[in-house]
Amino acid sequence: MFVAGIRIVSRYVRRQPGRFALAMVGATGYAAGVVATAWILGWVTDRLVIPAFSEGVGTGAAVAGAVAVLGVGLFRAGSIMLRRYNGGITGFRTRADLRTRVTDTLLAAPLEHHRQHPTGELLAHADADVQASTEVLDPVPFSVGVLILAVFSLIALVLVDPWIAGVALVLFPSLALLNRAYTNRIRLLVAEVQARIAEVSGVAHESFDGALVVKTLGLADAETERMEVAAGHLRDARIRVGRVRATFEPAIDALPSLGIIAVALVGAVRIGSGDMEPGGLVEAAALFGLLAFPVRIVGFFLQELPRSVVATARIDAVLATPPGPAAGVGPPCPTVRCRWSSTTSASPGQMALPCSTTSRSPSPPVRWWRWWGPPVRARPPCASWRFASWMCPTAPCVWGVST
Questions:
Q1: What is the pLDDT of residue 326?
Q2: Which of 42, 86, 91 is nearest to 65 (CA)?
Q3: What are the φ and ψ backbone dihedral angles of 384, each rounded to 5 degrees?
Q4: What is the dihedral of CA 8, 9, 14, 16, to 10 degrees?
């Protein structure tokens, strides 16, 4: 499931490479800004806050600290804007492109395909399935940025204290394993929800289309029961999904907080033994605190993967539908050949024309027809398909006209 989801994300990203690259630049800048913020907070604690209670600090140092904190904050804000703007455009354009492709495929599908699938189901493909398939793109730049942030944070924590880094090495794999168990549990339930949405859409659209017939035949109660059954199935499927989410999501949210508690305990011991400065503990706690929400975004990304895989499979089945014959195009036809002749007398404004059809079967007898129109001095082509159809009624259709 995870590998299939990553392939879907890469397939969508290849359609908007420029915007996604800009979003990734913003995500990387945000990761660097978070680590820089934690480092500056630790530096301010050791160089400005603690000395302020003992020997005092100069105005220049206080201003430098304030400018550093403000500058890093502005850098993080700019990175967030760059990531969210370009990431949003990536998702919106991918959604619009996919919805257009699905709609065009359904419009070009043969009539038999529309007879075999309820209209509501086809509408669900173009709306709910497209939305579910592409929503996984929204947290992708942030999630990749969180992975970069995890690498930067681990390096920073190793520099602060190896024991603090050990807490992070336990926390992040635990979070990954918990998310993997969550995706494995919820995958089939999400697939059932998508199928139930299509079922409800189909029943609703059939009721709209056949409202007059239903009321005429007195089947309103039967249609109401059908809708209640379909809606009940959808409700039950979503309740099952909600139960799984209620089990795993609190645990995913609690892990970063537990990490902060562990960091505080380990840091207190290390500071008491003189192996770490208070600024290091502030930096480590700030990193874990700043990681709490981004790590939750990774959980959201992993939660959306199963839903995206299921919806994309449904969309791919629609896109694989072979197109029907183009509008106005009939089956292969014999060629209609028209020959101009001057042997037949014609008054001004008239031209005599013999027409015949050529095919593998024996040609029918030549028939002479008159064209009532303006006089033609030069030999024209066989006019147009309308002209050939009117002049040559022996032909079964009007395509493939030659001169």
A1: 58
A2: 42
A3: -140, 180
A4: 130
How many other β-carbons are positioned within 10 Å of the β-carbon of residue 291? 24
- For residue 134, count other CB atoms closer than 10 A to its CB: 27
Under 8 Å between Cβ of 189 and 237: yes
The DSSP output letter for 60 is H
Q: What distance in Å separates the CA atoms of residue 254 and residue 321, rounded to the nearest whole number? A: 46
Rounded Cα–Cα distance for residues 311 and 131 (Å) = 9
The structural domains of the chain, with segments of one domain joined by +, span 2-319, 331-344+351-370+379-403
- On whether the CB atoms of residues 285 and 264 are closer than 8 A, the answer is yes
- Where helices occur in 210-277 by DSSP H, the ranges are 211-217, 220-272
pLDDT at 281: 85
**Sign (positive/negative) of CA torsion 296, 297, 301, 307?**
positive
CATH 3.30.360.10 fits 2-319, yes or no: no
Enumerate the β-bridge partners of residue 355. Answer: 338, 367
| Neighbour tally for 82: CB within 10 Å | 20
Write out pLDDT tens, residues 317-369.
Answer: 999 998 877 544 444 444 444 444 444 443 443 344 444 433 333 334 433 33
Q: How many residues does the chain have?
A: 403
174: which residues sit within 8 A by CB, 6+ positions away?
Answer: 255
**Cα distance between residue 180 and residue 172, in whole Å:** 12
Give the pair of three-digit tokens for residue 304: 């959306």
